[in-house]
Amino acid sequence: MDRYASPLNVTTNLTLNATVKHFSVFDGCEQYVEAILFDLTLQIINVIVGIPANVLVIAVLIHNRKEPSTSDIFLGCLAFMDAYFGTMTPLNFLNLYIWHSKAVWSAIKFSFGVKDTSGPLFLSCICLDRFVAVLFPIAFGQLKHIEYRLSLTLLVLCLTFAYSAAKMVGGFPNFEKVFTCEILAAFAWMVVCNASILSALKKTRTAGKDDMHPMKKKAFNLVLSILCIIIFNYLPLVALFPFEDHYSADVFRCYVQPAGFAFMNISSTIQPLVYLSRLEKVPFLPEAWVKKFCSCISAERSKPASERNTPA
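Predicted structure:
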């Protein structure tokens, strides 16, 4: 299970080896073009929407640096990695159709490795931070120093770059199983962790009343949004990739693989939009834009309390 064995990558390698075969994005997958088109479409969305959204997330985190959240460093790194992945998409298209450069292709493979690793690991760090804060508040108070999160961030970056470099070089036997194990372990941890947090936070409510502490309610909404992201973006990979042997080689390479990675790739757009939609006010943007593009929940929160409590 290696995303670089997809039809786009195989065809590119043929071109780089100077074969006389005519280039085609759908080479060998003419019967399964839907999944490839789906993946390419979502990558284009990452460029148009995802890059500006991630840059805005980074700007908001810098703007709020005087009152930071303990998870801000993880959110910032995640936004930076997603923005970087989005910027590589135009280079990928240009290299597929015009340049046919081996050096550019190596850089693109490195960016795929960054996306494969940084997203699940940084989301796991955010879940760990919230898990300790809610279930072990005393320990969390002792571990609030930025040094702990910097150390964890450095560890994630080292793992990400090591994995990406290995993917770029290639040739390691059964190396694709590393991603399978990583995504399964990260998915299981994030789901169990977030489910435990939601269960603990719901117990703070009085029966029949919504009197959760504002900070805990904020944490509840954050964890719930992360859980939705995890299920939508990573469940297809977890559900399909471990059963690679049950598909024919062409079906897995041309249909299952592009479709599975497409759901993970679009997280580069979904994650920053979910974060921005949770903000009561987005700096640097006119208030009219915020009201137009934020979710219905954000719009409801922006109304005066008297209007929200008015019966229909």
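Summary: The CA atoms of residues 67 and 255 lie 46 Å apart.
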